Automatic annotation (TrEMBL):
The chain crosses the membrane at residues 42-60, 75-98, 119-144, 156-176, 188-207, 253-274. It is found in: Cell membrane; Membrane. PROSITE patterns: ABC_TM2. Its main location: membrane. The keyword Nucleotide-binding does not apply. GO terms for biological process: response to antibiotic. It is a multi-pass membrane protein. It comes from Streptomyces chartreusis. Belongs to the ABC-2 integral membrane protein family. This is Transport permease protein.
Length: 280
């Protein structure tokens, strides 16, 4: 019955592209409706950076020394905000894997919906979660002493970079969810991504404060470039915090190249993995 009904569904007046946009928005709305009924994902994505902000950025701020006289609350804020994207990898991957495991996506097989619409709809709803989490973390950051110093436009540009990072991480989560079916393994991988990429960067201490053999790793860690870009846009970046070399001198360029490359790889891999999983 469903296959017959959908086969005769009239084409959208705007053509195929308009139909894909409509499908994407409808699926994003479905995920947001589910989020309203079960807000656990929003709480998880928000609480992890908040705990780190309060525990490290506020309670231990008098014990941390930042070169250049920058207040530790200012220094740590970009590193805390980046955790919103890193924390999002696991929940998004688990959500996709559960949809595939429980057969929810099988219902779409008889509908003229492209795999891209299903996946983009997921990323849009999860990006909304990330934006709400970033807003909450930023407000708490302001309450504990963080201040941007470069004006409204550059402050907004910094948050734009963070949202771009969150969106790329969501596609990384979808890639993980479409290629790894074991929920426990996905959860462990998501936690590993959060710990490794945040601590092997300049999120909490400057690169010069890391052991010598780890400094090149931290300097070329794309998370370091994103954090440094935000700090410079906000006026929170002390000299030498990102180390030396090309990534430290051109963090914006490195951020644009690495995020673009990672997005292309994640999108292509996710669509292929989704097609294999649903047999399309």
């Amino acid at each position: 019955m469903m296959a017959t009904a959908t086969a005769t569904r009239p084409a959208p007046s705007g053509g195929a592209f308009a139909g894909h946009v409509g499908d994407t928005l409808a699926l994003a709305g479905r995920h947001l409706t589910h989020l309203r009924r079960s807000p656990g994902r929003l709480i998880l994505v928000t609480m992890n950076p908040l705990v780190m902000l309060i525990a490290v950025g506020y309670l231990f701020r008098n014990s941390m020394q930042v070169p250049g006289g920058v207040a530790y609350e200012d220094f740590i804020m970009a590193g805390i905000a980046i955790q919103v994207g890193l924390t999002s990898v696991g929940p998004t991957a688990i959500g996709v894997a559960l949809d595939l495991r429980h057969g929810l996506v099988d219902r779409f097989r008889s509908l003229p919906i492209s795999p891209a619409s299903v996946l983009v709809g997921r990323t849009l709803s999860d990006l909304f979660v990330g934006a709400v989490s970033l807003t909450t973390v930023s407000l708490v950051g302001l309450a504990v002493g963080w201040r941007p110093h470069e004006g409204v436009l550059r402050t907004a540009a910094g948050f734009g970079v963070l949202l771009a990072f969150v969106y790329v991480m969501l596609w990384v989560g979808i890639l993980l969810g479409t290629t790894q079916k074991n929920i426990e393994a996905i959860d462990g991988t998501g936690a590993l991504v959060l710990v490794v990429f945040s601590f092997l960067s300049n999120a909490y201490v400057s690169v010069s404060g890391l052991p010598g053999w780890l400094r090149p790793v931290a300097e070329w860690n794309p998370v370091t470039s994103v954090i440094t870009t935000c700090r410079r846009l906000w006026g929170n970046d002390p000299a030498g915090a990102a180390g030396s070399g090309f990534p430290a001198e051109h963090p914006g360029l490195v951020t644009a190249i690495t995020l673009s490359a990672l997005l292309v790889v994640a999108v292509v891999g996710s669509v292929r993995g989704f097609r294999r999983a649903v047999g399309r």
